[in-house]
Prior knowledge:
This protein has a single domain (9-243), classed as Aminopeptidase, CATH 3.40.630.10. It has a nine-stranded mixed sheet, sandwiched between helices. Helix 6 links the parallel strand 7 (162-168) and strand 8. It is 32% helix and 22% strand. It has 246 residues and is an alpha/beta fold. It binds zinc ion.
Amino acid sequence: MVFKKVEGFDNLEIDYISNFSGGYISRNRNLMEQLELNNLTQLILEKSVFGTPIFKLGSGGNKLLILSGIHGNELPAQIANVKLLNHLIGADLFTTLYFIPFAAPKSTMNNERTFNSMDLNRSAHIKNSLSNLIIQKIEELHIDFVGDFHSTARNSNPGFESIFSSKSPSPESFLIANFISKDVGSRIISFDYAGSSYKGAVEDVCNLKGIPAITAEVLCPFANVGKGTVEKSYMQMESFLNYFGI
Ligand SMILES: [Zn+2]
């Protein structure tokens, strides 16, 4: 599969991660209540029926990925990602931005954490799992840095607004997390070595491959959109881009 220009949007291109993960996101009422519908957002939803789309804006410079929806019931980041794509579509970019707003549209449709009973943030190391296909695409596109955006509920893990990172083998993971933490106030969580406490997180698998990555969490009940949570997730995304001068 290769990127194709999206008709009606001059500088937007689309490719697919998979064609077995699609879903009718418009069936997720809690998400739809917070999503501003316009032509671009409508298009993203339509493309998500057929699988997991990845969008591209700009060219040259660093290649960055903004990822969300690895857990389908974590809604603020998915909404924020769509907003960010809407915000940047007209901008002059001197960098290459990739967006995966809905990693598993079927899971988002069902407002559930897992995809076909698989936790995508514990299976990115398993060959050809959906999150592993995202990793494969990251490698194929030579993406330089990855921001993976989530939410966490009280009394879950970690249960507070935070940025996950590790110091080895990709030390820039920690530097990016530190920057975002200072910028927006999210607490930093840093491991000495990626993937040492559990296996298969997208962030860890990237860091282990030498692609610096962070996981950002906002505090929000699962399957819902808490007040101010979309804005907070959006701030984390903007701060991730700010680290690279965007
Ligand atoms: Zn999550």
